[in-house]
């Protein structure tokens, strides 16, 4: 007993002096604090769980899907989902008018939606951020020209232009991605421009200039990390936007072409059966809504997480 | 040894102010024909009221703003775009606001070692060694090196800024109101640190301030600026005991004393010097 006591008293002052424990406050590691914040934010937590499930479903679609999403079976047409009287466990979510398994098509459709959302948001993110940062940092004539381009872009109705272009060049997965990537950069540009303007005259930028850092170093290494949190929020918004637009284009027949299982296309194909087999359009419609909701919840949550709290 | 560490020859900076479409633009002379010489090892205090052009002058010396006219010589070399990079090793700034002068997304270690990386001084190991050495010198505990600026106090941040300014071993520091964003007890610590560093490293300071108490405590010579012009310069004793220019006299008489019974200082009428310059 006395030995343990003397042991603890002799060792504690040494350790107390060597680390940040000297203050007597409990030390919470950085990742732990971030995790607590993440778990404490209900919207972010729910959003990430849903989004995570959908992403996993998309990645593992070949293993999860009970059937081949392209195989047609005319004798098994329009089987209702399992909660209907006539539903069978063979096709949990039923089949469509060509007898293709709906669950399998839904799982493969998640791949299409997520691919389009992410790549289109990234393409427009690169375009918009580049333009916005250049306009915000250099100001003057550069800003005037880029602002004019942004205004021009904002004056274009996205859906109309997308429809016109898709009608001209024909719809396909790659076409939709490129088209949306080239159309959805405006919000990135506006956000990047205004955040850059706020930071342009910060003294840490001046200090890097005095040190002789090149303009590209200042923009990429000093400025960009500071506006990234704002841009990540925009990425999530534009991802949701792109997914919805893809569904719209596919619904109108100008986006992803059959037999690819896109959710928008599934809604479109089901619209003739809307009154008697409502689940044909309800299932992809609700899934689409849940995905967009989850992405927006994550975006909102990330914005809250990045709100300045001491580390500013 | 150069004759002057820092020499300003007839330095001017004018801004064109646009007054709408129909009237001609007016010219604001932020800095108007300032000539200054600072011999190596001297501390020159540049004082003047807010908006008199002190910070514009500092920006031109640092090369952040091209002068309209005149030139800046650092260790007898004229600053130009060609030798900007080389001169960074001789002249470094300490900014006013330690809250905006450190990149919030970088650790203190990254911030202090940035000048070494940009100028490719030594390898990674020697860079880390000199970061450690420099943080010792400015009294920054080593455990703070992996923190972010947001986790530091104002005084600690200013120590980081000083360490970053000194790590390339410059001979001249341009301090633009380095303590005005700090509270009074921390101000004294930072000023004492600057003085100790001057002794230890033989630095030359251009010390810009509107706090006359600080200037009197620190500097060898004083230059007084008013509306973009230097109205008076001299040794500390000359200026503080025997000011000639009416603006300097007014500036000195406006200093608040810590003696509560004396009340507020009586301000002189500015008509006495407004036209004199």
Q: How would you characterize this protein structure?
A:
The complex is a heterodimer of chains A (312) and B (277). Helices cover 71% and strands 0% of the residues of chain A. With 312 residues, chain A is an all-alpha fold. Chain A has one domain: MetI-like fold (Orthogonal Bundle). In chain A, helix 12 packs antiparallel against helix 13. The longest helix of chain A is centred in the middle third of the chain and has 37 residues. The radius of gyration of chain A is 26 Å and the shape is globular. The longest helix of chain B is centred in the C-terminal third of the chain and has 18 residues. Chain B has a domain of 190 residues: P-loop containing nucleotide triphosphate hydrolases (Rossmann fold, 3-Layer(aba) Sandwich), CATH 3.40.50. By secondary structure, chain B is an alpha/beta fold. Chains A and B meet through helix 10 and helix 11 of A and helix 3 of B.
Order of helices and strands of chain B: EEEHEEHEHHHEHEHEEHHH
Describe the largest sheet of chain B. Answer: 6 strands, mixed
What share of residues are in beta strands of chain B?
15-25%
Radius of gyration of chain B: 20 Å
The residue ranges of chain B in which pLDDT falls below 50 over 5 or more consecutive positions are: none
CATH class of chain A: Mainly Alpha
How is the biggest beta sheet of chain A arranged? Answer: none
Q: Strands of the largest sheet of chain B, in order across it?
A: 6-7-8-3-9-10
Uncertain segments of chain A of ≥5 residues (pLDDT<50)?
A: 1-22
Give me the count of strands of chain A.
0
Our count of helices of chain A gives: 13
Any idea what the CATH architecture of one domain in chain B is?
Answer: 3-Layer(aba) Sandwich
The total beta strand count of chain B reads: 10
Structural class of chain B: alpha/beta
**What is the number of independent domains of chain A?**
1
